[in-house]
Amino acid sequence: MNSLDRRRPIRLLSQQQLKTAGNRPEQSFPQFPLFSTTLQQSRTRESPKGTTILEPSQGTPNSRRAAGDTWPAWRGAAVRPRVQFRPRRAPPQWPTWPPARATNLILADDGYGGHSALFPATSKELRKALRPNTKMVWFESPSNPLLKVVDIAAVSKIVKAHNSECLVLVDNTFMSPFFQNPLAFGADVVLHSLTKYINGHSDVVMGCLMTDSERLEAHFLFQQLAVGSVPSSFDVYLVLRGIKTLHLRMRQHHSNAISVARWLETDPRVERVLYPELKSHPQHEVHKKQTSGMSGMISFYLRTDLEGSRRFLANLKVFTLAESLGGYESLAELPSLMTHASVPPETRRTLGITDNLIRLSIGCEDKFDLISDLNNAMETATGESRRE
To answer: Which spans are transmembrane here (predicted)?
Structure first.
């Protein structure tokens, strides 16, 4: 019996929501609702004549920023209140914008490479790092690329004991809502890169924030509309399309990844495998407590140097050399030179992001093809065949 049988998956959508999310009655045939989400490009609505114009707080569509049909369809699809944003206009600091003077933010030392250019790590010890002016604690679980697992409930308890108004934000991109729901463990805000697993087709750049707090949702929505960070109707349409197969894809990602991780763990050409579903993972028990499985993200240390890592990546045939993750296709990358190249070299070495650390995003292809591809590339990189 695998972990998916033992732990019930966390659903982003109910079956009824999956079926009807975004459906709009066609004007000519209101008795026959459309089965799939429509792509509504128009963002301008005519106000009813002879009636009192509603205040924005009462739901009046705000020009192009909130008037389309496709965007509300996505907002109505997720279980929790949410705000989604488009790229470039909403970088990772968006939830904290505009920052107040003398505001302290705590960010985990291992995470998305772009963070290091925005926030230096304050401290590895949360209790010592918390200050009277700390407004937010931000972390990923599992982290990128070392797949460290954070006890979300424990962190939330510590933070709230220090200051009940301090926000706990969890980047849940690596897990998707199918496998982990940080809100259930005390987080205030959950961030997802919809580009990854939720969309699942590598053809959208988009993100979202989820929260249980009506106050926070109103704040985020105001910020979103104020700066015009609203996704296009087509991007929302693509995400709504992808989300309907999320449960199918995540099960396949998990099944493939656990097979690949177990294979890597028994290979003498591999120093160490980082995958929370493995019992060898240092936070395996914490992972089991707060998730119902694991995605396709694996990192491992190959017994080689930088040139060997380059040879390994260059000789992959099924895996594609690319920085992203969460799509159907399997990807491989070298964090030290790619996703985390902006992190200072000394910091990378301290964290363990060395030149022989490989990050994999396991896709939905045949698992035997994936294992064979890894084996062949390892032979070229190390000059050694696998010894059983």
So the answer is: none
Domain limit, last residue, from 217, 243, 269:
243
Residues pairing with 320 in the sheet: 331
Q: Roughly how many angstroms between the first and final C-alpha of the chain, as a whole number?
A: 25
**Using CA atoms in the order 70, 73, 79, 82, what is the torsion angle rounded to 10 degrees?**
50
Pairwise CA distance, residues 341 & 348, whole Å: 9
Instruction: Name every residue whose Cβ is closer than 8 Å to that of residue 42 and which is 6 or more positions away in sequence.
Output: 67, 68
The CATH number covering residue 265 comes to 3.90.1150.10
* Closest alpha carbon to 140 in 162, 158, 164, 116: 116
Tokens 């985020």 map to which residue? 220
CA distances from 74 to 33, 95, 176, 245 (A): 17, 20, 16, 15
Name the nearest CA neighbour of 106 among 128, 121, 95: 121
pLDDT, one tens digit per residue, over 288-321 is 999 999 999 999 999 999 999 999 999 999 999 9
Tell me, yes or no, whether 279 lies in a domain. Answer: yes
| Listed residue (163, 167, 191) closest to 177, CA to CA | 191
Give the span between the Cα atoms of 314 and 65, in whole angstroms. Answer: 44
Rounded Cα–Cα distance for residues 140 and 156 (Å): 13
Read off the tokens for 186: 């005390």
Does residue 3 form part of some domain?
A: no
Q: How far apart are CA 157 and CA 249, in angstroms?
A: 33
Phi, psi of 145 (to 5 degrees): -110, 5
pTM across the whole model? 0.82
C-alpha span between 290 and 362 (Å, rounded): 22
Assigned token pair, 318: 């099924």
- Rounded Cα distance between 276 and 258, Å, is 10
* Distance (Å) of CA 200 to CA 71, 310, 335: 18, 27, 21
